[in-house]
C-alpha cells in the first residue's frame, strides 16, 4: 500500500491528491469520466499492487480531476475494474477501493452493467441498488475472508445498511432536478455471480425467485471493501439486457412428436445475450449516467462523512 500511495504522490498534482469521491466505471461506462476537469490519467501499470483489466469496454487507468459544476468536486475514477473471472484474486479486485480509502475518499459511486431479472425493468433503466444477494459470499468467496488488512477495521461487518440511504435519495433528487423521466430510474436488489458465463433460464428464475432484480459479475466485492473502509456507498446498475426467463419450458419431445405426426410446429428461437450488446447499451446510456453522477456530486452535502 505504501508503495502505491508513494507512486500516486509522484504522479498526481498535489491539489488532486485528496479526492472526496471515488467512482468505478462499469462495462462501457468509462465515458463517465469524460467531463473531468484538470484531469490526470495514471495507468494501472504504473501503480504497484494494481493488476490490469482484460475485459473489452474496460480501460486500465485511474483518472483524477474535478467533476460537477462550479469549483467541482475532486474525484478519482477507475476507468476499468477487475473481476474475479479474469483470474484476479479477490484482494486484487478490491485493492483500488482500499487505495481510494487511504487517499481520503469518503463516498464511492460504483456503476455496472447488469441483466434484468425483474420483468418490469426495461433495457436502459438505471437501477439504484438498495441491497444485494451474493451467492459467492455465502459460499466462501468473500473478499473479506482471511487475515484482516487492517486490524482497526471491523471483523464482522454488518451489511443491512450497506447502501447509503442519503446517497440513494440524492439520485432521485438529481433526476428530478434534471427533469429525467420517472421511468428512467428504478430501485432494486443486485445479485452477484462469478461469471463469466451468463445465466441459464433456470438460474435466472432461481435468482429472481430469491428476490434479485438485476444480476452482474462485479460490484459486491467493491461494496464490501468500501463499507469495511467506512465509506458511503452508492451503486447504479445500468440494465443492458434482459435475462431470458421463458415462462415455461417448450418440450422438444412434443415438438418432435408433432413433427413425425406431420403437424406443423413453431421453431423456438432461443435469445442469447452478448457482451457487445452490453457495451452498445453502455454507449447509448453513458450520457444519462454521466449527467446523473455529475448532479449527485453537485448535491452532495459538503460534510458527508457518515
Ligand atoms: O459489472 P461490469 O464490470 O459493469 O460488467 C458486466 O458486463 C460484463 C458482461 O457483459 C460482466 O463483467 C458484468 O459484470
Ligand atoms: N451475470 C450477468 N452479468 C451481466 N452483465 C450485463 N448483463 C449481464 C447478465 O445478463 N448477466
From TrEMBL:
<dbReference type="Pfam" id="PF01048">
    <property type="entry name" value="PNP_UDP_1"/>
</dbReference>
<keyword id="KW-0808">Transferase</keyword>
<feature type="binding site">
    <location>
        <position position="218"/>
    </location>
    <ligand>
        <name>phosphate</name>
    </ligand>
</feature>
<comment type="pathway">
    <text>Purine metabolism; purine nucleoside salvage.</text>
</comment>
<feature type="domain" description="Nucleoside phosphorylase">
    <location>
        <begin position="20"/>
        <end position="266"/>
    </location>
</feature>
<feature type="binding site">
    <location>
        <position position="241"/>
    </location>
    <ligand>
        <name>a purine D-ribonucleoside</name>
    </ligand>
</feature>
<dbReference type="GO" id="GO:0004731">
    <property type="term" value="F:purine-nucleoside phosphorylase activity"/>
</dbReference>
<dbReference type="InterPro" id="IPR000845">
    <property type="entry name" value="Nucleoside_phosphorylase_d"/>
</dbReference>
<dbReference type="InterPro" id="IPR035994">
    <property type="entry name" value="Nucleoside_phosphorylase_sf"/>
</dbReference>
<feature type="binding site">
    <location>
        <begin position="81"/>
        <end position="83"/>
    </location>
    <ligand>
        <name>phosphate</name>
    </ligand>
</feature>
<comment type="function">
    <text>The purine nucleoside phosphorylases catalyze the phosphorolytic breakdown of the N-glycosidic bond in the beta-(deoxy)ribonucleoside molecules, with the formation of the corresponding free purine bases and pentose-1-phosphate.</text>
</comment>
<feature type="binding site">
    <location>
        <position position="27"/>
    </location>
    <ligand>
        <name>phosphate</name>
    </ligand>
</feature>
<dbReference type="GO" id="GO:0009116">
    <property type="term" value="P:nucleoside metabolic process"/>
</dbReference>
<feature type="binding site">
    <location>
        <position position="113"/>
    </location>
    <ligand>
        <name>phosphate</name>
    </ligand>
</feature>
<dbReference type="GO" id="GO:0005737">
    <property type="term" value="C:cytoplasm"/>
</dbReference>
<protein>
    <recommendedName>
        <fullName>Purine nucleoside phosphorylase</fullName>
        <ecNumber>2.4.2.1</ecNumber>
    </recommendedName>
</protein>
<dbReference type="InterPro" id="IPR011268">
    <property type="entry name" value="Purine_phosphorylase"/>
</dbReference>
<keyword id="KW-0328">Glycosyltransferase</keyword>
<feature type="binding site">
    <location>
        <position position="199"/>
    </location>
    <ligand>
        <name>a purine D-ribonucleoside</name>
    </ligand>
</feature>
<feature type="binding site">
    <location>
        <position position="58"/>
    </location>
    <ligand>
        <name>phosphate</name>
    </ligand>
</feature>
<comment type="similarity">
    <text>Belongs to the PNP/MTAP phosphorylase family.</text>
</comment>
Amino acid at each position: 500500500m505504501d508503495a502505491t500511495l508513494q507512486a500516486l504522490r509522484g504522479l498526481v498534482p498535489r491539489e488532486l491528491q485528496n479526492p472526496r469521491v471515488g467512482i468505478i466505471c462499469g462495462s462501457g461506462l468509462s465515458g463517465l469520466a469524460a467531463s473531468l476537469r484538470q484531469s490526470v490519467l495514471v495507468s494501472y501499470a504504473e501503480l504497484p499492487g494494481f493488476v490490469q483489466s482484460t475485459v473489452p469496454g474496460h480501460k486500465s487507468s485511474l483518472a483524477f480531476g474535478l467533476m460537477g459544476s462550479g469549483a467541482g468536486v475532486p474525484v478519482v475514477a477507475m476507468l476499468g475494474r477487475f473481476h474475479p473471472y479474469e483470474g484476479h484474486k479477490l484482494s486484487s479486485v478490491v485493492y483500488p477501493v482500499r487505495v481510494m480509502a487511504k487517499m481520503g475518499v469518503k463516498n464511492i459511486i460504483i456503476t455496472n452493467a447488469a441483466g434484468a431479472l425483474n420483468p418490469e425493468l426495461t433495457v436502459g433503466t438505471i437501477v439504484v441498488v438498495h441491497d444485494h444477494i451474493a451467492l459467492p459470499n455465502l459460499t466462501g468467496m468473500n473478499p473479506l475472508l482471511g487475515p484482516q488488512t487492517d486490524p482497526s477495521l471491523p471483523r464482522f461487518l454488518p451489511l443491512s445498511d450497506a447502501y447509503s440511504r442519503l446517497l440513494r435519495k440524492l439520485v432521485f433528487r438529481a433526476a428530478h432536478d434534471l427533469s429525467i423521466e420517472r421511468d428512467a430510474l428504478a430501485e432494486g436488489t443486485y445479485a452477484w455471480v462469478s461469471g463469466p458465463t451468463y445465466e441459464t433460464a433456470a438460474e435466472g428464475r432461481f435468482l429472481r425467485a430469491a428476490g434479485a432484480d438485476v444480476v452482474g459479475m462485479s460490484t459486491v466485492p467493491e461494496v464490501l471493501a468500501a463499507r469495511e473502509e467506512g465509506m458511503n456507498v452508492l451503486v447504479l446498475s445500468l440494465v443492458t439486457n434482459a435475462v431470458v426467463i421463458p415462462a415455461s419450458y417448450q418440450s422438444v419431445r412434443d415438438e418432435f412428436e408433432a413433427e413425425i405426426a406431420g403437424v406443423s410446429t413453431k421453431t423456438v428461437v432461443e435469445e442469447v445475450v452478448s457482451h457487445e450488446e452490453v457495451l452498445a447499451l453502455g454507449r447509448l446510456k453513458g450520457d444519462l449516467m454521466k449527467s446523473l453522477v455529475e448532479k449527485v456530486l453537485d448535491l452532495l452535502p459538503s460534510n458527508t462523512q457518515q
